[in-house]
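Two folds, back to back.
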Amino acid sequence: MAKFIVYHTLPTPTPIPAAEPVGKATKKYSTPEAYWVGAWIQLDEQGHATKICCEWDAKDVESIQRVLDKVLLEIPGFPVDGPYPLMKVDSEVYR
């Protein structure tokens, strides 16, 4: 499977508990063709989420988009930028 990345720039800083329904919905709708691996969350000074960067394993962009479409039906208006192809590089490669 290929790797992809999806960004979510939140319009206002959001407490982590308020963002959890998105993660639960994404996990619920993930499929063998598009599987949400995990996320990095950029925090502000108060510890609220400002940007979420999600890593996916998927057959293709369309497979991820089908999952995201279901998530957006459950959580309308959630910002989505992507999916984009991703190449992950460990620092150990350059040791």
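---
second:
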Amino acid sequence: MQDSTGYFVEVRRIRDTLKAKLWAGNTSDNDYISGIYASDLMSDVLAYGKPGSILLTGLNSVQAVISAYMAEFKGVVFLRNKNPGEEILKFAREKGMYVMSTESDMYETCIKLASLESETPDKVQEKDEGHKADNITTHTFTIDGHDFASAGMVSTQIKAILKSIGYDPSIIRRAAISTYEAEMNVVMHARKAEVTLTASDKEIYIIFIDEGKGIKDIDLAMKEGYSTATEEQRALGFGAGMGLPNIKKNSDYMDIHSVVEVGTRIEITFYI
């Protein structure tokens, strides 16, 4: 269920309509969401989700909430009475996100929410235009391959750094989505990686250098839908073949070099 232009519904009405349990967030604040997106494929959320939406998913994992955060969603509704764990709730509360759970399945939930009439918010929030960085800053990070418990933490740190600098929110969102996709590729396919973020008033430049199996055919890997993910990785909501295409779509410049059984280097640039 994709969002609609001009669609505004109070979070509390979503909670009441779904008879959902609220785990994180405060629905008494008269907050609005501007779209509904239903999916168990996190790369689709990153590729097609609209900022300000709420995610409907049966994927009960912290990666679902991290993906929603990277896409600038306001929260997540877990379907089929799946209750979020403490790791999920800790992340959501730190980021100010809503988390709910409902007994309804995805189809029933979409039907219920589609029946809600759009409202006009009492107070339209002014867009935060942000400001450019004054100086060059560099940060380095390390990602451990196959560590799904920590997957997304480096991308979360990078997003926080970019927000603290004050870049335009649209650029931060594109950078967050790109780094998250690149990080998940490392976790799924490499042993480890070093990540370097360089931010200035002209560009945001990020390099991922991993040690792993490499990419045999880069042109093939860049095609939407192509994936070498395992069934276990697909069960986590990844491996839909949208990772590298999502990075290319969101970045202003992307370059990949890879050597089989050695590793891969991905350079991503966002112009300010």
